[in-house]
Amino acid sequence: MKYVFFLLFAITLFADEYVVKFKEYNEEVISQYMSDIKLERYFTSSDEELISLKEKGEKLSGEKLADLRTYFMVEISKEEYSKLSNDKNIELIYKKPVFVNATVQDIAPITPSFTADQGYLESYSTSFGLGSSSVWAHKGGAGNNITVLVIEVYNFTMDHEDLDITLANYSGYPNNTDMTHGTAVVGIIKGAKNDYGITGMAY
Q1: Are 92 and 166 in contact (CB under 8 A)?
Q2: Are 161 and 106 in contact (CB under 8 A)?
Q3: What DSSP string runs through 82-129?
C-alpha cells in the first residue's frame, strides 16, 4: 500500500495544471478524454450562458469568437503534455497562469523621480499628452481591476523595483534576454505611483 501512496505522490509532484482548448465542442469526443484524464470546465457558467456570450460578442465585434465550452483544466505530466500538444482534436494547450504579488521597494542606488518628464501623462493641449493623469481621480481611471496581456516577443524584468504589479508566470519567450523594451512597455502602463522612477498611465 505504501508503494501505491508514493507512486501517487510522485505523479502529483511532477504534474502541472494546464488549460486545454478543443478545436470544437463535441460532448462525445470530450467524454472520451475524460475517461483517461481528469478534465474540469475552465468556465463554469451554463452552456446556455456561454453560447449567449459568444453570440453577443460576435454580433458586437463582427468576428467569429472562440466557444468557451471548449476550454478545460487538467493536471498532467510533461509526457502527457507532449502527447496532447500533437492531438488532432486539441487546438491549444498551455500552463495555467499562477499569479504572484510583486513587492515594490526602491533598491540602491536611489532612483530619482522621472514623472515630471512624462509629458504623455498630461493633456494634449499642454504637452501633446494623452491626459491620463486627469482621469486618475475618477472611479476606475487609474486602471483598477484591469488585466493586461503582453504578447510581444520581448521579455521583461518581473522583479523590477518600480513595477507594482501582480504577474502571471508565463511560458512566452523565456530565452529572450532583451529586458529593456518589454520592461519599458510594462512600466509605461503600470509603473508604481511613488517617489521614484516613473508613474504608469494606469498605475
Answers
A1: no
A2: yes
A3: HHHHT-TTEEEEEEPP-EEE-----PSSPPPB-GGG-GGGS-HHHHS-
How far is residue 47's CA from residue 183's CA, in Å, rounded to a whole number? 40
pTM greater than 0.70: no
Cell numbers at 146, concatenated? 484591469
| 38 in Cβ contact with 74 (< 8 Å) | yes
Point out which residues pair with 197 in neighbouring strands: 113
Query: What grid cell was written down for 86?
Result: 500533437
Q: Three-state DSSP class for 46?
A: coil
Q: Which tens digits make up the pLDDT trace of 10-63?
A: 444 456 889 999 999 999 999 989 888 889 999 989 999 999 999 999 998 899
Residue 5 CB-half CA count within 13 A: 2
CA 137 vs. chain centroid, Å, equals 27
